[in-house]
Amino acid sequence: METKAVRFGIIGCGLMGREFASAVARWCHLTEMNVRPEIVATCSRSPASHSWFKQHFPSLQQTTADYRALLMNPDVDAVYVALPHHLHQVVYCAVIEAGKHLMGEKPFGINREACEAIVACMRQHPEVFVRCSSQFAFYPAVQRIGALIEANALGRIIEVNTGFLHSSDLDPDKPINWKRMTAFNGEYGVMGDLGMHACHVPLRAGWRPRNVRAILSNIVQDRPDGKGNRVPCETWDNATLLCETSDPQTGQSFPWSLKTHRIAPGQKNNWYVEILGTKTSVRWSSANADTLELMEYQGGEQSWRQIPMGHETAYQTITGGIFQFGFTDAILQMWAAFLREFAERRLPSKYSGCVTPEEVLWSHRLFTAALESQRNAATVAVSCQPMP
Asked: Which residue among 99, 146, 243, 248 sits deepest, i.e. has the most Cβ atoms within 10 Å of its Cβ?
């Protein structure tokens, strides 16, 4: 099959930039793609960070410390931006205005106003394809859950529980980083960092939060600064949200509980989703990624059954279906989704696509209301104003 190359620049050559590059190196793993990414430019303020890309990607033509120089490169078709949140609005809008297609890291702006500005810029340039990064929904079990939702197999939704729990900040002596500083991470704290993952499936389903009661926790209030001092941690470590949520297809409402915790004892990096329905209920956790739990209720006794999941992916690969799926596979599937939708402007199925800017904006509406809920210890309505 002849494949068309899409030439990428990477702005931000840290962990996720390297994960994208690794997916590019594995592109031959995908068997039915007629489009492929090619890395031609990198941008980082750290000269040393370019060396890994130079070593592994002979297609690389440009390395720069100035993202504007990368955007002026006529050989760059699309850009992946993985930068701290306070830089999203300026850089994302610059990418869009330069006519480059964009995959941006969540949360697509340090606050709702920044996200609205990015979405408004995107709408002024409809020729530019824009999506947001969130890879966990591409696990095979979650794709199966999406198919069940799409087929209306769950019946009336009773309750939804989603979240992202990990323990990366459990150690109080872990040095501070930008994610604990409001100037760089924003007031959302952990919600900005992890929240889009927990929102991905419900928002793709079309479920919209009407209101929220949030409890936000700043558990470790100071950390070492690497210079012998302890400095304040300004952002929220943990967020627990309870939303009254509506299903626009039925007009019915149900509770949606959402947790994003950076301090979750006993957890490693656990993304989970549970949906309880009157006909079928499902639950899955990345801590037990190979197993989907499903209960179909037809009267009589109730019994959860466990379905072993293999490599049953949205985008076909050379891996046999019986083999297990992992994080790097999810990254590859996410990028396959971006390139497939970019090339064809359509998706194989509803849940096989990346997060849209409109879905990201809904997450900002929710997190903005959650901040107000925490300040006032009250249930707060989630804005449903028209998109900018």
From this structure: 243
Distance CA 8, CA 76 (A): 6
Angstrom distance (rounded) from CA 315 to CA 28 = 12
250 band by pLDDT with thresholds 50, 70 and 90: confident
> What is the tally of structural domains in the chain?
2
Picking from 277, 301, 281, 279, the residue whose alpha carbon sits closest to that of residue 292 is 281
Q: Are residues 128 and 157 in the same domain?
A: no
Helices first, then strands: H and E counts in the chain: 10, 17
- The answer to whether the beta carbons of residues 3 and 340 sit under 8 Å apart is no
Tokens 């095979």: give the residue: 140
Please name the residues in contact with 48: beta carbons below 8 A apart, sequence gap of 6 or more: none
What pLDDT score does 384 carry? 78
Distance CA 232, CA 169 (A): 14
Query: Could you give the C-alpha distances from 202 to 151, 351, 383, in angstroms and in order?
Result: 15, 11, 17
pLDDT in tens, 192-206: 999 999 999 999 999
Helix (H) or strand (E) holding 340: helix 327-344
The pLDDT value recorded for residue 386 is 62
C-alpha 265/C-alpha 277 separation (Å) is 30
Give the distance, in angstroms, between the CA of residue 319 and the centroid of all CA atoms in the same chain.
24
Examine the pLDDT at 142 and tell me if it is beyond 80: yes
pLDDT at 149 over 80: yes
Name the amino acid, one letter, at 325: F
- What is the domain range of residue 187? 139-313+357-381
- 8 A C-beta contact, residue 263 and residue 169: yes
Contact 245, 260 (CB under 8 A): no
Prediction pTM value: 0.95
Describe the chain by its helix, strand, coil percentages, rounded to 5.
Answer: 35, 30, 40
Same domain, 53 and 170: no
Residues 69 and 176 in one domain: no
